[in-house]
Amino acid sequence: MKNTLLLVGTSFLIGTMACGPQDAISTDEEPGLLQVSEPALTVQSCTPLSVSSVTASGSEAINPPANSVDDRLDTRWSNLGKGSWINYDVGSGRSISGAAIAWHLGNTRINTFTLSVSSDGQAYTQVYSGTSSGTTTAAETYAFSPRAARHLRVTVNGSNVGDWASIAEVRVCNGATTTTPAPSTPVWSGNFETGSLSQWSGQQRVSADRLQLVSSPLREGRYALKVTVKQGDNPISASGNRNELFRLTHEPVGSEYYYRWSTMFAPDFPSPKTWQLFAQWHHEGSSGSPPVEFVVNNGVMSLNCSGTQVWSTPLVRGAWQDFVFHAKWSPNASVGFVELYLNGQLVLPKRSCATQFSGMLNYLKVGLYRNSTIAPVGVLYHDGWTMGRTLSDVLPQGVTLNASAAEVATASGE
């Protein structure tokens, strides 16, 4: 049986099936109801230059050249025909040393292409020729010796599956050396400092008092989120009881992110011998446990990846617990990994596991979701949710983490 209903705070459909810890968000949204940007592109070994204009030899009407610089991996520039090109104007003569390209369906297509540069947009010099790896949808950086130029052109000469040129994102790499580090910039913040829940994509709650902003207790800033769950709270007519916020993070396959937040369990927080989830990266599917979940069960707090417990520690009530979670998102267990810091200490070094299910992206859910057999009221608090591409993106100024082997051994009980 499938139930559909409108979420509070947004407008798209939820599909549910009663199969244990699960829920799902449909990917079949009606056009115009909800537009959520993908997280910004992550590039390696490339300092991007600002692009003033993008042109191309041609394009599909629904996949124009501008899509390749919109900071979204779910849009693209596409054109049919070998020799199709797309051109990036950086506005003035600069030092250019490469291009970071995220190919559409880059984990299934091997693209043959060239890179050329020009000072006037008329005469071009080829500076690179090669193929994409065919193994990832994340950006791949193709470097060449720095050249003084204003334009960079990518010419696609087909792929192993046909003559389409399809590129999700391109960044032109700065060839000039600099000693000024790029500023730390979070991809997203859900720290409640807006005084509302507007930083989140939506909510699943039975009433406003179940997901309530409070000024005490606080871990930082002016507001924290108080989460209350009572037996029978079932806002989406699915298994279990819950009141949760969600953010449509939809991390691309092969991407890598850090997440920081703090959680405090109330002094009387119940912990019987059954599952309670307080943070989860849920798949888009309609049933089954999520690939990554933070769980409380029988007085123990744990991290599960693909159904396997990879870390645990005794539950602490009445005090803020500071989490920094690092993940590489992949359905391949030899590619994906999780890493965890708790209260400034590395408690789980990188652990390989499948962090996504094949063909499905994840989205973030926080709050409290628990077995419906639990009778006592459950109260916990969340604060400081931040997502970034690097560790420095999510850490508050002046905060450092301890990653010594001795601390890891102590924290993990080894």
Walkthrough of the structure:
The protein has 414 residues and is mainly beta. It folds into two domains: 14-32 and 187-412, Jelly Rolls (Sandwich), CATH 2.60.120; 53-174, Jelly Rolls, CATH 2.60.120. It is 3% helix and 43% strand. The protein contains two helices and 24 strands. The chain has helices at 391-394, 405-412, and strands at 14-15, 24-25, 53-56, 77-80, 84-103, 111-118, 125-131, 140-159, 164-174, 188-190, 202-204, 211-214, 224-229, 241-247, 256-265, 276-283, 292-297, 300-305, 308-314, 321-328, 337-342, 345-352, 362-370, 378-388. Strands 10, 12, 13, 15, 20, 21, 22 and 24 form an eight-stranded antiparallel β-sheet that branches. Strands 3, 4, 5, 6, 7, 8 and 9 form a seven-stranded antiparallel β-sheet that branches. Strand 20 and strand 21 form a beta hairpin. The longest helix has 8 residues, at 405-412. It is elongated. The two termini are 46 Å apart.
Write the layout of secondary structure elements.
Elements (H helix, E strand, L loop, with lengths): L13 E2 L8 E2 L27 E4 L20 E4 L3 E20 L7 E8 L6 E7 L8 E20 L4 E11 L13 E3 L11 E3 L6 E4 L9 E6 L11 E7 L8 E10 L10 E8 L8 E6 L2 E6 L2 E7 L6 E8 L8 E6 L2 E8 L9 E9 L7 E11 L2 H4 L10 H8 L2
Antiparallel strand pairs: 1-2, 3-5, 4-9, 5-8, 5-9, 6-7, 6-8, 10-24, 11-14, 12-13, 13-24, 14-23, 15-20, 15-24, 16-17, 16-23, 17-18, 18-19, 20-21, 21-22
Number of helices: 2
How many structural domains are formed by the residues? 2
Instruction: Please tell me how large the radius of gyration is.
Output: 23 Å
CATH overall fold name of the largest domain: Jelly Rolls
* SSE arrangement, N to C: EEEEEEEEEEEEEEEEEEEEEEEEHH
* Percentage of residues in DSSP E strands: 35-45%
| CATH class label of the largest domain | Mainly Beta
Summing up helix and strand content along with how strands pair, one would put the structural category as mainly beta
